[in-house]
UniProtKB/TrEMBL annotation:
HAMAP family: ASADH. CDD domains: ASADH_C_bac_euk_like, VcASADH2_like_N. Gene3D superfamilies: Dihydrodipicolinate Reductase, domain 2 (3.30.360.10), NAD(P)-binding Rossmann-like Domain (3.40.50.720). The lineage of its organism: Bacteria, Pseudomonadati, Pseudomonadota, Alphaproteobacteria, Hyphomicrobiales. Residues 10-125 form the Semialdehyde dehydrogenase NAD-binding domain. This is Aspartate-semialdehyde dehydrogenase. The keyword Cell inner membrane does not apply. InterPro entries: Asp_semialdehyde_DH, Asp_semialdehyde_DH_beta, NAD(P)-bd_dom_sf, Semialdehyde_DH_NAD-bd, Semialdhyde_DH_dimer_dom. Pathway: Amino-acid biosynthesis; L-threonine biosynthesis; L-threonine from L-aspartate: step 2/5; Amino-acid biosynthesis; L-lysine biosynthesis via DAP pathway; (S)-tetrahydrodipicolinate from L-aspartate: step 2/4; Amino-acid biosynthesis; L-methionine biosynthesis via de novo pathway; L-homoserine from L-aspartate: step 2/3. Keywords: Amino-acid biosynthesis, Diaminopimelate biosynthesis, Lysine biosynthesis, Methionine biosynthesis, NADP, Oxidoreductase, Threonine biosynthesis. One of its GO terms (molecular function) is aspartate-semialdehyde dehydrogenase activity.
């Protein structure tokens, strides 16, 4: 085991017992992220239990106002309400917060960062850096290098979102409801508002009665414009939950200002960080959640002309990415890696 040195950061994880919290730990281990000491924080229900970290049993502490004393970096994935209450407390205590909730994403004073796109914005932080929505990250990692080469002016996007996006409890409910369905037993949903086994339904966030768009769709629209720093992009989004445990998929059609070919898109994406092309027409093999699960890259395939646009400005493609990794924990740890080390004496 690598021995922490004095100037390694003290890291706190708020929400350590959740699905993303577990991935924070796994990702820090995989990437050898330097940690002098880990503080594992959760609700009172989990206090006193332990989590494994680099051969040690770390005692889980109840999250409170003193939890961030002496902490350099705080990774949050405990929900928007917890973030709104405790992130400012962490900052006041001297920590830099990387927040995985939606609490601060649209705050003009908070950078919204995907390192492959706008890592430079990390320098603008005032204590809090926001991790984008998982669906936005999945789409924007491959769209950004294309946008840089030939400005994207319009995007139509449909998501196929896994249970992992709703947390560990939703993943367990999918398993339980599927077993019940196969056994012919009744099952009453507790986490997800609709039957999950063998079913597809509109994303389980509130729907705006005026626009008809749910919160997830609105997040993708607003966050895309903020991250790309381009309010002119026209975006249409439909977000759907599918009975997949882990890794989101998205069907994306985008229109560029100038004509663009399939070969150009493939050439751009072949060099793009965080992207892996999976596009075998002969074998009918394209991005799938089963392949994206546990992977750091966004898988991109089905790259083809949009036949509804005879001008040649539009391309369609299909992507998949692990929501718990690049869509959450990995992106946050990548941000933390780029922070100037803030250490206690």
């Amino acid at each position: 085991m690598e021995i922490p040195v004095k100037n390694d950061p003290v890291v706190a994880i708020a929400g350590v017992t959740g699905a993303v919290g577990a991935e924070f730990i796994a990702t820090m281990n995989k990437r050898a992220f330097p940690v002098r000491r880990l503080k594992a924080l959760a609700s009172a229900r989990s206090a006193g239990k332990t989590v494994d970290f680099r051969g040690q049993k770390i005692l889980i502490e109840e999250l409170n106002e003193r939890s961030f004393d002496g902490v350099d970096i705080a990774l949050f994935s405990a929900g928007g309400g917890i973030s709104r209450k405790f992130a400012p407390i962490a900052v006041k205590a001297g920590a830099v917060v990387v927040d995985n909730s939606s609490a601060f994403r649209m705050d003009p004073d908070v950078p919204l960062v995907i390192p492959e796109i706008n890592a430079i914005r990390i320098r603008d932080h005032k204590g809090i850096i926001a991790n984008p929505n998982c669906s936005a990250i999945t789409a924007l990692v491959p769209l950004w290098p294309i946008h840089r080469a030939n400005r994207i002016k319009r995007v139509i996007l449909s998501t196929y979102q896994a249970a992992s996006g709703a947390g560990a409890a939703a993943m367990e409910e999918l398993l339980e409801s599927t077993r019940a369905s196969l056994d012919g037993r009744p099952f009453t949903p507790k986490v997800i508002p609709h039957p999950y086994a063998f079913n597809v339904f509109s994303h389980n966030t509130a729907v705006d009665p005026e626009t008809g768009y749910n919160d997830e769709e609105t997040k993708v629209i607003k966050e895309t414009r903020k991250i790309f720093e381009d309010d002119r992009i026209a975006i249409g989004v439909t977000c759907v939950r599918v009975p997949v445990l882990r890794a989101h998929c998205e069907a994306i059609t985008f229109e560029c200002e100038r004509p663009i070919s399939e070969d150009e898109v493939r050439a751009i994406l072949a060099k793009a960080p965080g992207v892996r092309i999976v596009d075998d027409r002969q074998k009918n093999y394209f991005p799938m959640p089963i392949d994206a699960s546990g992977q750091d890259d966004v898988l991109v395939g089905r790259i083809r002309k949009d036949l509804s646009d005879p001008s040649g400005h539009s391309i369609s493609m299909f992507v998949s990415a692990d929501q718990l990794l690049k869509g959450a924990a990995l992106n946050a740890v990548q941000i933390a890696e780029l922070l100037p080390q803030r250490v206690t004496a």
